[in-house]
Every structure is written in structure tokens, then in C-alpha cells.
Amino acid sequence: MNPRQRVRAAYTGEPVDRPPVAAPYVGLYHQDHFGELTGQPQWQVHAWLHSSPEDHVAALKRMVHLAPFDMLQPQLAPSREARERVEIVRRGHQCFRHHKHEDRWEIIVESPGHPIASTANEEQRVLDTADIQRLITPVPAERQLAAGSLDYIDAAVAALGDEFFIVAGGVATPFWDATFYLGVSNLLAMAAQRPGFVDEVCRRILECSIENIRALAAARADALYVDATLTTSDMISVPQFERFALPYITELVAEIHRHDQLAYVYYFGGVADRLDLITSTGADALWIETSMKGYVNDIGAIADAIGCRVCLHGNIDPYGVLERGSDARLEAEIRRQAAAGARARGFVMSTGSPITPGTPLARVRRFIELARAAGGSG
Length: 378
What we know:
The protein is of the alpha/beta class and 378 residues long.
């Protein structure tokens, strides 16, 4: 079996020669380890994220060759206009984004992690229904496609799609996306104090997410995902999950299926008290985070609870086991998870969170090697 056949079989409960091997948001791994995977200076990752589709996929092929996960998630592209207007320049020890048309130079702040600016937003920007209509605006799929945002994904599907299982991307739950308009703390308070307003915000965000799914599905890859961050046992109650998460996840999964794509849901947090609800969404696969922060996601207990209703992804600890653990500990955890996963509809050997920036390529390759050996001849 090739990687694409292997993952599709696992997702649909068909026999596999060995469990597929994957890492969540593997595109982040490609960003964090760009230099190690390509032999280029790490700062060139910024140029890669603004390159032509041909150059972008050429580098992706080199990375896939060195770290051959069965599942790939290519990068979304900046618009074609942005790629034409921007160049990445290195001057001494500093990297710049040069906006050529206005000759504006923007410093790129280097970090050891993903080269993406991200901050917690506690500002409430949406105060009433008028704000919802004015500030939360769906972008039609046709406009997204015309801008070129799927150029890298289209190129990856054309070059690698026959062999590898490709995830074109996904959407978050409206409950999580509401944080960008209400703030995290405000949203959690409003779920108790102003639930009707939260419903209104989430319904509008759902319209945006549907358009995003329509755009991503146009790449004709294999799957899309729903990231269910903030809808876990450590953040909201089961009744709140039933109101603010379940109907939206179910509708998003249905929309993904309408476009003939497989769908997986990913939970960053505890899920033990809501597994029946999660499996009722119709998702093809469930990906869960490593146990941490006061909750326990035991792979064996979860496999027993979901049974043959859904394919299960592993949740190996990417820091304590993959990056920092011994080979013996890594191999033992792989074998434990493979045994648990055999009780689900299908199983994908995976870490439970993205691979850490400090994990060297040799360790990633060892993970893939041990995972393949544990599951069969490959």
C-alpha cells in the first residue's frame, strides 16, 4: 500500500499493511525545521512561504523525502498579489519583508517556533448584532480561489497526491473563532451570562467557515479537519458543548462530506466525558491531544469507548516521549498505542500535539521507523 491508500483504509475501517504514521499540523513541522529538512538557512523559510508554487513544492518534496509521514498538510499561500509585491531579504543578522511597490521594509522577528505572529486577543470588538454583520464577513470561496490562496496546495496535490494522503487544511469551531471577536475570557463568561449572543456570533462564523470549506475542498485533496479547540472538558461543560460546539461541528463535518472529503476532528484538551457526543458528529477520525494540564486522554480507554464508530489517531507525547524520551520509552509507547488503536475502527500512529521545535530530524525518523516496525512489515 502507498501512504494515501493506507490512510484512507484506516479512516474507513479497511485492512492496512501497517498503521499509517502522522504528526498533527505537519506543515508547522516543515516550518520549524525548514533548514534541517532542506539544507538551506532557516531564515529562508520566509522566502519559501512567498515563493512560486513550483519552487514551493520542490522544497516540500525534499522535506517529505527526509521525513516521510503518510499524511501531508501543505501550506496555504499568500495571495498572488502579495507574492508579487513582497520579497524576503537578509541584511546581516536581520531578516526583512520588503514591500517592493512602496519600498517599505518590515523587520521579521525570528523565533525558535513557527514563523507566525500570534497573540492572545482579549479585546471585545463585537458588541451587538450590528457589529456581527459588519465585522464577521464570509469571504466567498470563489474570491479566495481567485486570489491564489490554494496555489501551494494545488501544486502539492498535483505533484504528490497520487502517493500521499493530503489534508488541504481545515476550519476551527465557531466557538474558538469567536475568541478573535470577543476575547477568550469574555467568551467563556458570555457562554454563561449571554448565551444567546454567543449563539448569534457562532452562527455568523459558521457562514464564514462554510465558505472556507468550499474553497479548500476545491483542491480535491483527501481530507479536511475541524479543530475543536476550547470545546474540551477543561474549558466548557458537557451542556455547553452540546449547545456551542456539537451542532456546529456536526454541520461542518457534513459540509466536508458534501464535497466528497474525509473529515477528522481534533481536540486540544480533555475528551473523556464527551466521547459519545464527539462520535455522533459523523467525523471519520478523531485526533486527541496528549494528557496534560489536569486532564487525562488515555488512548486505551478512548479506544474502548469509541469502538468501531471512528478511526483513532494516537496521542504520543511529543515532548516527554518523542523529543526527550529514550528509544526504549518511545518504542514501548508506540507498541502500547498500537495495541489500543487495534480496538478502534482504524488507527493512525501519531503524536498528540505538533512536533516540538527542539526535536531533531534523526529523532523524527526514528519515530517513523519504530512506528512502521510495530505495526507490520510496511
